[in-house]
Amino acid sequence: MVCGLHVQITNPFPQLSRLEYIHSHSYVHGDIKPQNVVLGLGDLRHTAFIIDFGITKEFWNMSGVHIPFRQGQRLTGTPAFASINNHLGVEPGHCDDLESLTYMLIYFLQGSLPWLTSDQEKLSSTSILERKVNTTIEDLCCGIPVEFATILIYTRSLAFSEDPDYNHLRSLLHILRSTPPAPAACLLDISQPEVIPITHSPLFFDKPCVIEAVSPCPLLRRSTRM
Predict the structure, then answer these.
(1) CB-side exposure of 203: number of CA atoms within 13 Å?
(2) How far apart are CA 103 and CA 67, in angstroms?
(3) Count of domains in the chain?
(4) CATH number at residue 33
């Protein structure tokens, strides 16, 4: 199924609000990607939801103790949208969700990512990491507003246990609302189990687009999957 996402910038970036809510309840999603963002039906057809909490984990334990910084961990989530630190075996934190979110936004706007091949060839996670590290932020964000580069720089600079400044991120997104964009739609194939690049060129417009924000999701239950 190819789903048309009619996008607008009349509201702040909704997935940021979703992640802030998830993080506020001491969880890390761990697998932010286009396949885990779905649209509702009927009156909720313009509403975006984050799904699939299979590898979600607690960031603070029940005693209020922060999980320890660890290295040598296995890559979790989807390599194409995983943070660089996740590739390098660092324990994922809130900052890694936000880095994945930024990659997803850029994917929506650009139609692909430099580490995704046009012929749908499946690269190893090692090859994806190499391309990701060697792609400059300037090249990654070429043709889209500079605020996305600023957001990516910020998310990559966050320390493992540092609380993200969501208001700062929102302020960057509010800058993008100064001029309403022309109506536009992008066709994204979100039916595949593995991420593949869009085979057509996305529509470009003067300002980037975001999906309409909605009220917070229910409180999460702890995942039993390791």
Answers:
(1) 15
(2) 25
(3) 1
(4) 1.10.510.10
Closest to 113 in 3D by CA, of 82, 70, 67, 88: 82
Cβ atoms of residues 185 and 203 within 8 Å: yes
Give me the count of residues in the chain. 226
The three-state secondary structure class of 219 is coil
Q: For 182-223, write each residue's pLDDT tens digit.
A: 333 344 443 444 443 333 333 333 333 333 333 333 333 333
Catalytic residues: 31
Query: If you write DSSP's letter for every residue of 80-107 in order, what string do you get?
Result: GGS-HHHHTTPPP-HHHHHHHHHHHHHH
Q: Is 170 contained in some domain?
A: yes
Residue 10 neighbours by CB under 8 Å, 6+ apart: 177, 180, 212
Average pLDDT, the chain: 76
The SS3 of residue 224 is coil
CA 37 to CA 196: how far, in whole Å?
A: 15
Q: Is residue 47 part of a domain?
A: yes
Q: Map tokens 């609000």 to a residue.
A: 17
